[in-house]
Specification:
about 20% strand, alpha/beta, two-stranded parallel sheet, 5-stranded mixed beta sheet
């Protein structure tokens, strides 16, 4: 199965890649060159740290480049807007009447603080394909939880 990502998530990863290539790497390269010009590199902390930082940047650049090639950007809402699919904002109500809203996103962009949950999470798996008014049971380590889907919407 392909790994999905929203357009916003893909743009964020692409921006990070460009930032690393066009800003961070040239800056650190210049710092390493300046540190190397100071002489003895074996005890030069700026040089050693700079080389380490360059390796970290290069590793992240390789990861992001490869990852962006693998991801499938989902830019359009599905045909059936009443069902929960990737990218949906889903409002759930628990047995106590408390509501919570989640957006189902790819594993590269989940952020619980913003309400973004991975499509691979137990909650998202329980929601996919359901529609407003349906009840879903989510298996959790601390016990099952039952929710009612109050709303499903798609927006960027």
């Amino acid at each position: 199965m392909a790994d999905y990502i929203t357009r916003t998530g893909a743009e964020r990863l692409h921006h990070e890649l460009l930032q690393l290539l066009n800003v961070e790497r040239p800056k650190v390269t210049a710092e390493v060159s300046a540190a190397a010009a100071q002489g003895d590199r074996s005890e030069n902390a700026e040089y050693i740290y700079g080389k380490r930082r360059l390796r970290e940047i290069d590793r992240r650049v390789r990861f992001l480049s490869k990852r962006l090639d693998e991801l499938v950007v989902v830019a359009e809402a599905p045909k059936d807007l009443s069902r929960v699919h990737f990218g949906a904002w889903v409002t759930l109500e628990d047995d106590a009447g408390d509501e919570v809203t989640y957006r189902i996103v790819g594993p590269d962009e989940f952020d619980v603080d913003r309400g973004f949950i991975s499509i691979d999470s137990p909650v998202a798996r329980a929601l996919i394909g359901k529609r407003g008014g349906d009840e879903v049971t989510v298996r959790r380590p601390k016990g099952d939880a039952t929710y009612t889907i109050v709303g499903v919407k798609y927006q960027t």
